[in-house]
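User: Hi! I have a protein structure encoded as tokens and I'd like to know what sequence might fold into it. I'm fairly new to this, so please keep things simple.
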């Protein structure tokens, strides 16, 4: 099939999720205009996510004139009937992907940046000895060339051989009519945890992660949620008082969490899903996507991929260590109950873990 060489850009961003759009928006702020963003889907799109915005990213969203997220200042952990509440020293926020992503996309388009949607990357040819440009083959049979490449998605041909097998199943929906005691509530079950968190318009996002790899959960998630309701009366009461806004629960497999090893390409910067899969228990996924996207844009402008990788590791390696600890505690109520007891006796413990799972820039 014939291909067509169309354009050369200084910066190409692959992946138009929060991380990729944040990188593009930061490049706009740095007065760059030769940018292309390639997104395989379209807007708006729901994603399985806790939709929790950690405090450290809110200032960036404010500079981009993103409407103020719903305030989240209190969090509760509920394990085996025991409960611990704590207040954040600095308020976080709640905002859904279906609300946030289109605003980020519209901002770059208002600034004249090209955005391709419903377009997949078929192949990437990195710079060679004869060319210092990336050649990006697209599903529309066109080839784009780029001087700098920012990769914000793991769904690339080069990643298929290293794709990790699924270790978890994620479940998500939005509800209305649920009254939370805290702005975010976390419930722990054997091999499963689920979070209820406020988002815009008085809605509540419900996101679940389970290690039970029963395929029936993908096809009948409501039965699985109903089972959890019978195991925790308080959780069941919250679910049953609300009305689900989605026509059905969203479900998806998820791989093991950890830092990935992307290709070592010159002038390439890996962020978001291309760089790592972060445990949702630490609540730092969205913030990490936003801030690492901004970081990649700054280093890409300086053409310093080595410096970017060092800074990324400095900021986020500790996040994954403490995030995995929290993830395992929430998946095992025995350890989760011990964690809740420890937090009750020493209120500084949850604040310590919250601080250790944030961006330390």
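Assistant: Happy to help. Inverse folding works backwards from shape to sequence: for each of the 361 positions I chose a residue that suits the local structure. Here it is:
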């Amino acid at each position: 099939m014939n291909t067509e060489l169309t354009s050369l850009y200084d910066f190409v961003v692959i992946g138009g999720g929060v991380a990729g759009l944040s990188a593009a928006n930061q490049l706009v702020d740095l007065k760059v205009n030769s940018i292309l963003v390639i997104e395989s889907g379209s807007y708006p799109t729901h994603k399985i996510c806790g939709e929790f915005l950690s405090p450290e990213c809110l200032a960036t969203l404010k500079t981009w004139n993103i409407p103020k997220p719903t305030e989240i200042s209190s969090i509760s952990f509920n394990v085996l009937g025991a409960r611990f509440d704590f207040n954040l020293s600095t308020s976080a926020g709640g905002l859904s992907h279906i609300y946030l992503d289109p605003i980020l996309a519209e901002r770059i388009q208002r600034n004249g940046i090209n955005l391709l949607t419903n377009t997949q990357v078929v192949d990437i040819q990195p710079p060679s000895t004869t060319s210092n440009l990336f050649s990006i083959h697209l599903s529309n049979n066109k080839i784009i060339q780029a001087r700098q490449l920012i990769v914000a998605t793991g769904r690339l041909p080069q990643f298929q051989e290293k794709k990790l097998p699924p270790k978890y199943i994620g479940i998500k929906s939005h509800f209305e009519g649920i009254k939370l005691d805290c702005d975010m509530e976390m419930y722990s079950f054997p091999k499963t945890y689920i979070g209820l968190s406020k988002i815009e318009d008085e809605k509540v996002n419900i996101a679940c992660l389970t290690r039970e790899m029963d395929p029936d959960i993908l096809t009948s998630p409501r039965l699985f949620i109903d089972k959890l309701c019978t195991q925790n009366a308080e959780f069941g009461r919250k679910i049953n008082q609300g009305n689900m806004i989605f026509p059905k629960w969203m479900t998806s497999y998820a791989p093991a969490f950890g830092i990935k090893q992307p290709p070592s390409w010159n002038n390439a910067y890996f962020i978001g899903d291309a760089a790592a899969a972060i445990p949702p228990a630490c609540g730092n996924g969205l913030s990490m996507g936003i801030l690492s996207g901004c970081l990649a844009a700054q280093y890409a402008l300086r053409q310093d991929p080595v410096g970017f990788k060092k800074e990324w590791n400095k900021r986020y390696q500790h996040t994954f260590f403490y995030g995995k600890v929290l993830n395992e505690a929430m998946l095992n109520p025995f350890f989760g109950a011990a964690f809740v007891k420890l937090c009750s006796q020493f209120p500084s413990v949850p604040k310590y873990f919250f601080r250790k799972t944030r961006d330390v820039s």
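A useful reference point when you look it over: The first helix runs from residue 18 to 29. Feel free to ask if any position seems puzzling.
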